[in-house]
Amino acid sequence: LVTRALRSHTHMADSTGEAGSAERATSPPTAGGLNPRQLHPKPLLDEGMVLAAFSTAGVKRQHAFRMWRHLIQNGEEDVSRVPDMPRAALQLIREEFAITTSRLRSAETSEDTSTTKMLIELQDGKLVEAVIMRYGCVQLSNFPEDKLTKDEEGNINFRSTKRATLCVSSQVGCTMGCTFCATGTMKNSVSLCAGEILEQLYHANKIERIRNVVFMGMGEPLDNYNNVIASIRAMTDVQRFSLSPARISVSTVGVVPRLLRLADDAPGISLALSLHAPNQELRTRIVPSGKAWPVHRILDAMDVFVAKQSVVLSRKVKVVIEYCLIEDINDSEEVAHELGKLLAKRSVMINVIPYNPTEVPYDYRPPSQAKTDRFCETVRQYGLKVVLRQEMGQDIAGACGQLVVETLGQGCSSGSADRTPAKAKGSQAADIEDLLGSGQQQQQQ
C-alpha cells in the first residue's frame, strides 16, 4: 500500500503543474493568492520575521531561540530580562516587535464549562475566534448515557485524561464557502501570519494549559500553507511550545498539491479531511470549492499522506473523515452505502457531525437521532469505524461550523437560537483530538 501510494504521488505531483520547490523558496510566502500581512509592530512569535530582522542587524539566530524559550516556557513578559540578549537585538525588538500584536477581546465560557470561545482582535482591527475545549472533567450533553461508567456513589468515571484542546483559526473568514459553515458567510478572507496563529495559543495558555491543537477554526489551513507549517514547527519546537506532533491536527477540504506535501513538511501530525459527501456532484453542492479537485484526486492525495506518515511513525495511521450530516441532503441510506463503498479499503475512520444550526442562507437542519444512528450503522456495515462528534460550546456558538465574526462593532454572531445538541444514544461519541493520532498518544501516555 505504501509503495503504491508513493508511486501515485509521483504521478500526481507531475500532473498538478505546481513546482513544490519553487513554492518553498518564496519568502515571505503567500498562499491562495492572498497578500502577505503588513504589520507594525511585528509579532515576536513569528520566526520568519524575527530571524530576517536579526540577520539584517547581524544578530545571531541563537538569541532568538533563547528569547522564545524564556517568553513561552518561563512566562517572561519583559524581553530585557532574557539572559545574554545583545543590545542590538533588544533595540531592534523595541523598535519593530511586540510579544503579542493581538489582544484577547473577550472569553466566553459555556454553561457546562467545557468550552471557552476566545474573540481575538488583531492589530488591524480584524477579528478571529479560537476555542478551548476541555475533556475529562465534564459530562458532555451529547455523550450517550449507556457509555458512561459510574462508581458506587454515582460519580462519573471519565475514561480519558483531563486535558485541553485549542481549535485555532488560520484565516479571517474563508474562501472555501462550505454551505453549512458560518465562517464561509464572511465576505473577505485574510491569511494570518504564523505569529498571529501562535498568538492564539499564547493567549489560550494563559486561560488553560493547552495539550492539543486542531486547525479547525476559521479558514482553510492549506490555503495559508506556509504560515500554518511555520506555526506547527514553532508549536512542536522543544525550545518553544514543545507540543507533540501527534497532538496537532490539520483539517482541510482537500487542496491537493499542498496535501501531497503536508506529510513531508509536518511529519507526525494528524489529518482530518472534510468530505461531507461520497460523490462529486453532491459534494460540490455542500462544498462549492470542491469543483477544483475531484473526490478521487483528494482521496488519492490522502492515501499518500497516510503512506508517508506511516513510514515516519512506524505504524499505520488513519485519517479522520469529517462528515457533516444534514437532513435530506446527505443523510440517506443510499448515500451511506455509497460512502461505505468509497472508503471501505482506505485507512480512515468517519467522524459524523450532526449539523449545528447557525446563520447560513440555507434551510439546513440536523437529522433526527434515529436517522443519524441508521446512517452510522449503514456505513459500519463496510467494516469502517464510525463515531459521532462530541459537540461542545453550542450555547456560545463555538461548535463545529459556528465560528463567525462580523465587523468590529458587532463582534461575534450568536448564530441560531436553536442549538439543542442531538443525543447520540446507540452510537459511539468521541472527541476529535482523541481520534486523530490516538495510536501515537496512547504510546506516549
Can you characterise this structure?
- This protein is an alpha/beta fold.
- The protein is built from 14 helices and 17 strands.
- It has helices at 2-16, 20-25, 47-57, 62-73, 87-96, 194-205, 225-236, 256-265, 280-286, 295-313, 333-343, 369-380, 432-435, 438-444; strands at 42-43, 97-98, 103-109, 115-121, 127-135, 149-150, 156-157, 163-167, 171-172, 190-191, 212-215, 248-252, 270-274, 319-325, 348-354, 385-389, 429-430.
- The strands form four sheets. An eleven-stranded mixed β-sheet has the order 3-4-5-8-11-12-13-14-15-16-17. A two-stranded parallel ribbon has the order 1-2. Strands 6-7 form a two-stranded antiparallel sheet.
- The longest helix is centred in the last third of the chain and has 19 residues, at 295-313.
- The chain starts with a helix and ends with a helix.
- Residues 14-34, 392-430 and 437-445 have low confidence and may be disordered.
Percent helix range: 25-40%
Radius of gyration: 22 Å
The biggest beta sheet reads: 11 strands, mixed
Strand content: 15-25%
Quickly count the helices: 14
Mean pLDDT, to the nearest integer, reads: 81
Shape estimate:
globular
Structural class: alpha/beta
Straight-line distance between termini: 29 Å
Low-confidence stretches: 14-34, 392-430, 437-445
DSSP E strands, number: 17
Strand order of the largest sheet: 3-4-5-8-11-12-13-14-15-16-17
Topology overview:
Layout: H1 2-16, H2 20-25, E1 42-43, H3 47-57, H4 62-73, H5 87-96, E2 97-98, E3 103-109, E4 115-121, E5 127-135, E6 149-150, E7 156-157, E8 163-167, E9 171-172, E10 190-191, H6 194-205, E11 212-215, H7 225-236, E12 248-252, H8 256-265, E13 270-274, H9 280-286, H10 295-313, E14 319-325, H11 333-343, E15 348-354, H12 369-380, E16 385-389, E17 429-430, H13 432-435, H14 438-444
Parallel strand pairs: 1-2, 8-11, 11-12, 12-13, 13-14, 14-15, 15-16, 16-17
Antiparallel strand pairs: 3-4, 4-5, 5-8, 6-7, 9-10
Helix pairs in contact: 1-10, 6-7, 8-10, 11-12
